[in-house]
């Protein structure tokens, strides 16, 4: 599978060279799936250490499926400022739509829509994304292509775009190693990641993710730790 992994990552890098974005994108790589009438609580943490210092973000959310194909999720975003004080930095609404039934076509498809408002200014961000996943035996390739528009009081009105990918080995449900790739303007990051699912009764399950992404931008150091816990019921 090494030649396949090399081909996939090379193709993603070539394709994504046409995408540009100036925001930092290391975060969750979304799968295009929705459980019928699911409810979920989620916590995500992203900690980036580079030449300019350390950036710490946390997200807390609750989601509820509107149908067997659509789920709506509300987020509170927290960040640490230059004084090391942690506070609310944004509110988000996220809508995910599973467009195809799993395994019915050559790949599984979904879409993502987000709107974010910053509490301390009249600044907004809207995002639309295309989510895909393709299985190769015990391996799977997940991609996210996002278009972002920012506007408001303190940010310029501009379009941006992002690319994320995850190549995963589905070893056992509880432990699935992967390689993740993130590309935006002025940023390319790649690194190992791990995820797992512990299933309980019916739809009740706990998902976890852990990744360590290294930036390839010429800085003496640029490392990002990301982790998440998601409880679905």
Question: What's the quick description here?
Answer:
With 233 residues, this protein is mostly beta strands. It is 6% helix and 61% strand. It starts with a helix and ends with a strand.
Would you write up a description of this structure?
6% of the residues lie in helices and 61% in strands. Strands 1-2-3-4-5-6-7-8-9-10-11-12 form a twelve-stranded antiparallel β-barrel. The chain is mainly β. It has one domain (2-232): Porin (Beta Barrel). The chain has one helix at residues 2-16, and strands spanning 39-50, 53-65, 70-80, 86-98, 108-117, 123-136, 139-152, 158-169, 176-184, 187-199, 205-215, 222-232.
Unreliable sequence segments: 1-22
| Helix-strand string | HEEEEEEEEEEEE
What's the average pLDDT? 89
The largest sheet is: 12 strands, antiparallel, barrel
Structural class designation = mainly beta
CATH architecture: Beta Barrel
Beta-strand content: over 45%
Any idea what the radius of gyration is? 17 Å
CATH class: Mainly Beta
Number of strands: 12
* Apparent shape: globular
CATH topology: Porin
């Amino acid at each position: 599978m090494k030649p396949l992994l090399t081909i996939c990552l090379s193709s993603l890098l070539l394709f994504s060279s046409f995408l540009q974005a100036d925001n930092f994108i290391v975060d969750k790589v979304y799968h295009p799936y929705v459980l019928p009438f699911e409810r979920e609580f989620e916590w995500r943490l992203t900690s980036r250490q580079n030449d300019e210092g350390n950036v710490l973000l946390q997200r807390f959310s609750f989601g509820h499926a509107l149908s067997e194909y659509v789920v709506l999720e509300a987020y509170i975003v927290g960040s640490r400022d230059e004084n090391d004080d942690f506070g609310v930095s944004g509110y988000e609404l996220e809508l995910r739509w599973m467009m195809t039934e799993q395994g019915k076509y050559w790949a599984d498809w979904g879409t993502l829509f987000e709107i974010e408002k910053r509490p301390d200014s009249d600044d907004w961000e809207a995002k639309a994304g295309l989510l895909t996943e393709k299985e190769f035996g015990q391996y799977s390739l997940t991609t996210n292509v996002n278009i972002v528009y920012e506007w408001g009081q303190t940010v310029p009105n501009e379009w941006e775009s992002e690319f994320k990918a995850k190549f995963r080995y589905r070893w056992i449900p509880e432990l699935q190693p992967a390689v993740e790739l993130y590309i935006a303007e002025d940023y390319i990051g790649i690194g190992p990641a791990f995820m797992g699912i512990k299933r309980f009764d019916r739809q009740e399950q706990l998902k976890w993710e852990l990744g360590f992404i290294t930036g390839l931008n010429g800085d003496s150091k640029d490392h990002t730790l990301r982790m998440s816990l998601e409880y679905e019921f």
